[in-house]
Amino acid sequence: MRKKLKLGLFGFGCVGQGLYHVLHETHGGVQAEIKKICVKTRNKERILPDHFFTFDRAEILNDPEIDVVVELIDDASVAYEVLKTALAHGKAVVTANKKMLAEHLEEIYHLQKKYNKPVIYEGAVCGSIPILRNLEEYYDNDLISSIDGIFNGSTNFILTKVFEEKKSYAEALKTAQELGFAESDPSLDVKGFDPKFKLVIAIAHTFGLFVKPENVINIGIDHISDLDLKFAREKGYTIKLIARAFKQNGNIYGFVAPQFVDTHNPLASVRNEYNAVQVQGAFAEKQLFIGKGAGSYPTGSAVLSDISALSYDYSYEYKKLHQETGLTFSNNLLLDAFVSFDLDVNITVKDFERLDSGYAANGKQYMVGQVKLEKLREWSLIPSVGVILAPECKFVSQDASTKESLLELKTV
Ligand SMILES: NC(=O)C1=CN([C@@H]2O[C@H](COP(=O)(O)OP(=O)(O)OC[C@H]3O[C@@H](n4cnc5c(N)ncnc54)[C@H](OP(=O)(O)O)[C@@H]3O)[C@@H](O)[C@H]2O)C=CC1
Ligand SMILES: N[C@@H](CC=O)C(=O)O
């Protein structure tokens, strides 16, 4: 039986207002009503009358009439406090806060069991793309070997504007902020933290493994230089920030890094704030989901879908967690990368496991070859170093001595 829900909303910014609009535009399609909205800033102009708003979280959290707390604020620590209190007070939670989820996912899993109340969060991973419920329900029995794609709308928007419209990086970032795509701290986007948080959540629902975000390597797009862009254009490539996780030899590997992408790769045509998720299963084989990964209405629609799911008592069962045993997370990988750096940076041939080419031009050095993932992370922290994976990058596991460890996974 479908329930009519009373909602307590935290946050009325880009996504909160998006939710408000999509909820009212379904014309009763979803049986839910926003009772109160908790926000932070007093004296801010709002599109709704004052009586909707409160600055006191307890007004929502202690209200026995409110069934569901919808958490859409831009502060991960406060969001976690809100989530814990809401569950303890017997309320279900919908959230789009990927930073908070990635940092506390295992605890949140246990809290749901303890209080017997669900936390669902489709809007937290790739905006409007319905991936989590698909991983939970549709891919319940398929053996998934990899999940990858474009998991951040802002950086895809920036790369599109820089490549196609020759906009400057700063100008493109400013537009992404104005359109509400970027995080309040945009370094989370451009340094690859935000897609990493989404990947951490996706890994739990794909492989049944809780990984701490600090154990997952993220390389952003902020050190990509004009010369790297020129190189890509000359070769007929574009650059995409790719999040990926895959299973090999009982290990799960996962990381975020920019990659040259050939025009035949379907990800090349995923532009602006669109995201894409590719799932590789043993039986269904490859499937690609594309949709808007950021923005007010697209994310609002994912949040609304979660609210609707709660009206039918939906909760994640974390099915893969009960299927998989003995998986470990590892960064012990070799990858094919293109590394560009200023002449005074101490990167040498010896740092490469295999050097395919190297040259100097326009005051920069370029080296292409096979490198350890950990080393790429170290280099990516140096401002004058650009790290971009090769278009046909192979990922070679160094973890096991079995034949299978020599198996090379190829990107599309
Ligand atoms: N923007 C997007 O496209 C997407 C965002 N998300 C996630 O959704 C969440 C919200 O993002 P977004 O709407 O863009 O953020 P905004 O910055 O647009 O809005 C943030 C809202 O949170 C409120 N807020 C902040 N701190 C508190 C607090 N301590 N107590 C009460 N309210 C508070 C703000 O209040 P006030 O209005 O008073 O300033 C504001 O209304 C974030 O976790 C983000 O990562 C997920 C997917 C896509
Ligand atoms: N900042 C994020 C917002 C959605 O998750 C992004 O750009 O993808």
UniProtKB/TrEMBL annotation:
Pathway: Amino-acid biosynthesis; L-methionine biosynthesis via de novo pathway; L-homoserine from L-aspartate: step 3/3; Amino-acid biosynthesis; L-threonine biosynthesis; L-threonine from L-aspartate: step 3/5. Its EC number is 1.1.1.3. One of its GO terms (biological process) is methionine biosynthetic process. GO terms for molecular function: homoserine dehydrogenase activity; NADP binding. Belongs to the homoserine dehydrogenase family. The keyword Oxidoreductase applies. Transmembrane segments: none annotated. It comes from Pseudochryseolinea flava. Keywords: Amino-acid biosynthesis, Methionine biosynthesis, NADP, Oxidoreductase, Threonine biosynthesis. Residues 130-307 form the Homoserine dehydrogenase catalytic domain. Residues 11-122 form the Aspartate/homoserine dehydrogenase NAD-binding domain. InterPro entries: Asp/hSer_DH_NAD-bd (IPR005106), HDH_cat (IPR001342), HDH_CS (IPR019811), NAD(P)-bd_dom_sf (IPR036291). It catalyses: L-homoserine + NADP(+) = L-aspartate 4-semialdehyde + NADPH + H(+). NCBIfam families: PRK06349.1 (NF004976). It comes from the Bacteria. This is Homoserine dehydrogenase.
